[in-house]
Amino acid sequence: MNTLTEQPAIQVSGVWKIFGDRWREALQAVQEHGISKQQVLEEYNCVVGVADASFEVAEGEIFCIMGLSGSGKSTLVRHVNRLLEPSAGHIHVNGDDVVGLDDKQLRDLRNRRIAMVFQNFGLMPHRTVRDNVAMPLEIRDLPKATRWQEADRVLELVELNGWEDKYAHELSGGMQQRVGLARAIAADPQVLLMDEPFSALDPLIRRQLQDQFMQLARVMKNHPVYHP
Ligand SMILES: Nc1ncnc2c1ncn2[C@@H]1O[C@H](COP(=O)(O)OP(=O)(O)OP(=O)(O)O)[C@@H](O)[C@H]1O
Ligand SMILES: [Mg+2]
Q1: Number of the ligand closest to the Cα of 79
Q2: How far apart are the CA of 113 and the centre of ligand 1, in A?
Q3: CATH assignment of 107-228?
């Protein structure tokens, strides 16, 4: 934990997410009468995605959310960069109330402070590997030479040097996954969100990528890649 700020990097408190048109009524019924998920579905035609989740993540901490399929992991993670808004509760990133951000502040949060690695890679097929990785830096209007230099440096970290000029679809699944990871690292975010980023891979590659990621995380904690 950063001793200067003492505040958690992420703070989630009492977050509920109920999907459906009648979520307000459903939420009230759950909170006041403690009705079950099944009753919420039957009586309000709503789905309880997250039920009263609270946690804190300290700076430098790797925090994992585990749970059965459909238990709300993806839903919960998507609240941190406000891809979803909570039905109740609060989310703070470095002390800022995420729900209270205006459009510009939200763009800033997503472009500069939080990066997300998605399960399905989320790469741009018509861009080269290098240009995919350099995208977060392009959004920040950095000169091309800087973007490319940085992209190539990060690609080396994930052992993809030599593949910079290939198009994303020319790479294997595991390699594309590493490009996605490299792009998130190039953004040098304060917060890196990953929603099962290795799950689509075969067990051997998955293990290798997980090990690589843990090693990278250790390196990056001590030597941040880039500060604009
Ligand atoms: N956009 C949505 N609209 C309605 N219901 C949703 C929506 N997104 C998620 N849900 C519901 O919220 C619940 C939690 O889903 P979520 O995707 O968060 O689970 P998960 O823990 O990530 O599961 P998995 O391990 O299978 O990825 C599920 O019941 C799902 O049907
Ligand atoms: Mg999920």
Answers
A1: 1
A2: 25
A3: 3.40.50.300
Domain segments of the chain as ranges: 1-100, 107-228
The pTM (predicted TM-score) of the whole model is: 0.85
State the closest ligand 1 atom to the C-alpha of 77, by its place in the atom list counted from 1: 18
Neighbours of ion ligand 2 (CB under 5 A): 73-74
Q: Residues near 67 by Cβ (< 8 Å), separated by ≥ 6?
A: 73
- Judge whether 1-100 and 107-228 match in fold: yes
- Given the candidates 3.20.20.140, 3.90.480.10, 3.40.50.410, 3.40.50.300, the CATH classification of the domain at 1-100 is 3.40.50.300
pLDDT string in tens for the chain (228-residue length): 445 557 899 999 999 999 999 999 999 999 999 999 999 999 999 999 999 999 999 988 899 999 999 999 999 999 999 999 999 999 999 999 999 999 999 999 988 899 988 767 789 989 999 999 999 999 888 999 999 999 999 998 888 999 999 999 899 888 888 899 899 989 888 899 998 888 767 788 788 878 888 887 887 776 555 443
Q: Cβ < 6 Å from ligand 1: which residues? A: 19, 47, 49, 67, 69-75
